[in-house]
Amino acid sequence: MLTMACVGSTNFLGCLPKDAFAVVSVTPPALQCRTWEAIRAACGRSPDIVAYFDYSAPPPLPGVEHFPCLTVFGCVDSHIHHWYPTYAQAFDLCTVSLRDHLSAFQENLSPDRAIWLPPAAEAVAAESLPREEDKDIDLLFVGKVDADLTPGRAVLLEQLAALFPGLVVTQGNWRKLFPRARLVLNIAEHGDLNFRVFEALSVGSCLLTPEIGHGLTELFTPGEQLFTYPPEDLDSLAALVRELLPDPARRERVARQGLEAMRARHSPAARAERFAGFVTAQPAQALIRQRLEASRELPASLRLLYLHWAEALPGDPRAALYLEAAKGRLPAGSCGL
């Protein structure tokens, strides 16, 4: 059995085969890091694998290129953090949520060491599909709306509200909110294949989502399992809403087929199987030796990344760890043990 120290979380961890992986959470508190000593202490031994599942923070594992075990970066937010491919080269393996960004990671990691691993969600049973008579919202968006941080989303929703008084924009538990809607709207502010796609389909919602790439149409068939519209195209989106609102039979058919696709191919169990197969098929010891040999001369881009964070966090205890990592050393001690 392999001991895997997990930094961060992902919804497929509980589906990993129990006879193959013993998962130990070593996620630090917010705004802190884990060094090798801290991880080893949390596990009670040296783990076989250290996996960082992206939670959109400064590098949580300074000096990871020196860790004496297999290392994995589960990357999600590469649409926000453009330095992720640089950090990924410090690891042995990488999974990338956004398919169209995969090539950037494979520039530093060979194609067999960086793979596409899309999001997932646990699908409800078919008999749990929401009934038409129980839906009390015409069009629903669930998520953060901020004129400064998500200006495109804010403008589009304001324009839609003027056309469709039945539009509801809110935040909260999507598992409870989505089933109330005749149509669930997704807006991908940064052009990412976001979790809202999988969440909406997993509860049997009829989804309208932008045509954003990243493998969306390889995972789902527009018009059969969901509906798509050109990003930020108000006229096309409005026409689609007008077409679908009075057609419950079509909405229900597409929602059911989307739910079936989720259950068959996009469950956490399916992602766990893919992740486990990817990790266990690797020549672990050879990868570790190769990385440790390469880490004797830190790549300039990785050194600059550590130096950036050392400078960006003055007075923060993480800054000293990043500075040590920039010098090519495995930082001693820990921040957040």
Automatic annotation (TrEMBL):
Q: Which InterPro entries match?
A: YkvP/CgeB_Glyco_trans-like (IPR055259)
Q: Name one Pfam family in it.
A: Glyco_trans_1_2
Q: Where is the Spore protein YkvP/CgeB glycosyl transferase-like domain?
A: 172-275
Listed name of the protein = Spore protein YkvP/CgeB glycosyl transferase-like domain-containing protein
Q: What is the lineage of its organism?
A: Bacteria, Pseudomonadati, Thermodesulfobacteriota, Desulfovibrionia, Desulfovibrionales
